[in-house]
Structures are given as structure tokens and as C-alpha cells.
Amino acid sequence: MTKNTRKLDDSIVLKAALEGLELQKQRIETQIREVRSRLGKPARSTSETPSSSTRKRVLSPEARKRIATAQKKRWAEYRKGSSGQK
Question: Which of 47, 19, 22 is nearest to 33 (CA)?
């Protein structure tokens, strides 16, 4: 068997596996909707993305440095205040 025919065979197998998994996914999603309806919860589309508030925030290196500096300053003040109370 040559490399090209092996790649072709692998590709066909992977495509068939993907189709089978997609069918299973659809069947499972249908079952989930049925269970939710029995529980009285509204059905949600599984294709919906989570709310935009769950996205990870990206900070610039300058912003991270400012935040770190401010936090270090707060901790220094806290430690200074707590060492005199002992």
C-alpha cells in the first residue's frame, strides 16, 4: 500500500467516523431536549454560544504591569498595618 492510498483510506475512515459522531450528537441533543421538557425547563439550542461576558479578557502587558504594581502596593500597606497590631 502506498502512502497516498493509505492517506486516502485514513481520510475516508475519519470522514465516516465524523458522520457517525454527528448523528450520535443529534440523537443525544434530541434526548436532552426531551428530558428538559419533562423537567419543565425551556429547551435551549446547543448551537448557542455562552454569553459574551464569559469570554476571556485580554490585557496589554502595560495594563498587567499597572495592576500588579497596584496590588503589590496594597499588600505592602496591608502588611505594614498588620505588623503593628500584633
Answer: 47
